[in-house]
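Page 42, continued from yesterday. The earlier attempt failed because a stray header line got pasted into the input along with the sequence. Redoing it now with the clean sequence only.
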Amino acid sequence: MHASGQRVRVKTHLQAGRTVAALKDGRVTEEDAAAALPPHLPVTTLPQPDETTCGPTCLHAIYRFFGDREPLQAVIARTWQLEHGGTYAVFLGCDALRKGYRARIYTYNITVFDPTWFTWPRVDIAARLVRQRELKRDARVRNPTEGYLEFLRLGGALRLASLSPRLLRGILRCRLPILTGLSATYLYRSTRERVEDGAPDDVGGHPAGHFVVIAGFDEARRRVLVVDPYQPNPYGPSHEYWIGVDRVLASVLLGIVTHDANLLVVYPQPAKAAR
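This time it went through. Structure tokens are written below.
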């Protein structure tokens, strides 16, 4: 377990005025592009208590990064869960918004979102989600819709931006960790799993989803630092490991198979950051 207990001052890791501009529509300002990219952000995670609590455990790690010392079990207790466990990133974003943070989701889940909803001029996404829910019975669409409607109502932002190393670098240059829902099966190159008990089964199994935090970018070696609450993972006994950025980007996109495929960026309100 890697949990230093170090209190990270929000003011050091967040310049709130620049953050909103840099994240808008997935673009980065010239000022942000010139900023020095830190080796990695000091994000630490506790081990997830069970097979299905990776999402709230990652969110808890981000809260800790911003100096919030709420117990992990409190975050887990109020997280919306699927029937067989697990959650969607949007419900993690809603939790952050209710706590007074800001939240932005970069979505690549075209099962839920039509790409044309994000073209200019943008349509009323909430209205389109409601209409889609009326027309479709697919649980993959209906289950997260309430969460997205609540996310938008609470002031969350949704974006469809090209998933690329540049996008990851731009967010990390703002001193912001990235919580991502992705395919664990592809990230780990592991055996697919049975839904009923999570046991490995290369024939009868299905792809598994997962949440991790991206906390660093090594431009020279084209790799990112992943903070992973799951143990044991294939990359050693640590909760942190460096892995090729192409593997991670592919894992995010393949997360659509398990209804993930997103980046969630949570950051404090400017007033909180200025303390």
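Notes: The chain has one domain: 10-273.
Reminder to self: strip header lines before submitting.
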